[in-house]
Amino acid sequence: MTVEDVFHIRNRGVVATGRVQNGILRVGDTVSVNGGPAVTVDAIEKFRKRLDEATTGENVGVLLKSIDKDQINRGDVITSAGEAPPLDGANVIL
To answer: Are the C-beta atoms of 16 and 64 separated by less than 8 Å?
Structure first.
């Protein structure tokens, strides 16, 4: 997922918005930002509705608690933990 925007919600964490490019993203999955340390997906929302999972093509907001807002920016790539981010600037695989 390529990050489109980032928000900080007090007492909740950081929300990264974007489109799932490939695969399925589930609450509880471990992901990494630009190949960095692993973080856990605490919640997924789509148009103010909570989801248990997001599939390819869906625009979603992903709540990440164990990351600071300054550690993630627009254009960053969120991948499954352990996967390297694409080197050619292509969109991501989750």
So the answer is: yes
